[in-house]
């Protein structure tokens, strides 16, 4: 069932690492999410961070959020502390989306969020910058490896956000 996703684990996780300023955003709006395992020293870093921030600027934060999870499992390309990782992303790319604490995204120690994403999408991350598009109800709509650009999946994301906005309008 989709109850494993997203509000429960994201909120407990956010509170646990002190990102209270994001928890209300996630809780109140139950937005569309693009979950990404990020790394600061990867060949895919520059294009992804730029495109992800553009996406956040255009679509976020009320109906959509990029959720970035630093991970050092692939090529040891995220070696720094959480504080350094966040300040690099904010300083270099003006990142305004939530940056979480470093986690494992694959293997036995994988964070429950990524276990869920891998199980439901049938795709486990094999490198940095895997992108998982998650609907507000927790359904994984798509999963893409780092060779697929953010621009390529943007139409699907936009369509999902548009659907969410229309549904909210009907609820008013």
From TrEMBL:
It holds the Pfam family GSHPx. InterPro entries: Glut_perox_Gpx7, Glutathione_peroxidase, GPX_CS, Thioredoxin-like_sf. It catalyses: 2 glutathione + H2O2 = glutathione disulfide + 2 H2O. One of its GO terms (molecular function) is glutathione peroxidase activity. It comes from the Eukaryota. GO terms for biological process: cellular response to oxidative stress. SUPFAM superfamilies: Thioredoxin-like. GO terms for cellular component: endoplasmic reticulum lumen. Keywords: Oxidoreductase, Peroxidase. PROSITE patterns: GLUTATHIONE_PEROXID_2, GLUTATHIONE_PEROXID_3. The keyword DNA repair does not apply. The keyword Oxidoreductase applies. PANTHER family: GLUTATHIONE PEROXIDASE, GLUTATHIONE PEROXIDASE 7. Belongs to the glutathione peroxidase family. This is Glutathione peroxidase.
């Amino acid at each position: 069932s989709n109850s494993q996703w997203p509000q429960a684990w994201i909120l407990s996780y956010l509170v646990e690492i002190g990102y209270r300023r994001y928890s209300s955003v996630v809780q109140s709006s139950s937005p569309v999410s693009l979950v990404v395992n990020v790394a600061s020293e990867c060949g895919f870093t520059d294009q992804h961070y730029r495109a992800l921030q553009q996406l956040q600027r255009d679509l976020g934060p009320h109906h959509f959020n990029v959720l970035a999870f630093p991970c050092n499992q692939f090529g040891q390309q995220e070696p720094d502390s959480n504080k350094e990782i966040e300040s690099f992303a904010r300083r270099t790319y003006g990142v305004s989306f939530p940056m979480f604490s470093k986690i494992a995204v694959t293997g036995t120690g994988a964070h429950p969020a990524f276990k869920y994403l891998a199980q439901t999408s049938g795709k486990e991350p094999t490198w940095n910058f895997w992108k998982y598009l998650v609907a507000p109800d927790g359904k994984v709509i798509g999963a893409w490896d780092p060779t697929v650009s953010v621009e390529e999946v943007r139409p699907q994301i936009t369509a999902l956000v548009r659907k969410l906005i229309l549904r909210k309008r009907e609820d008013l």
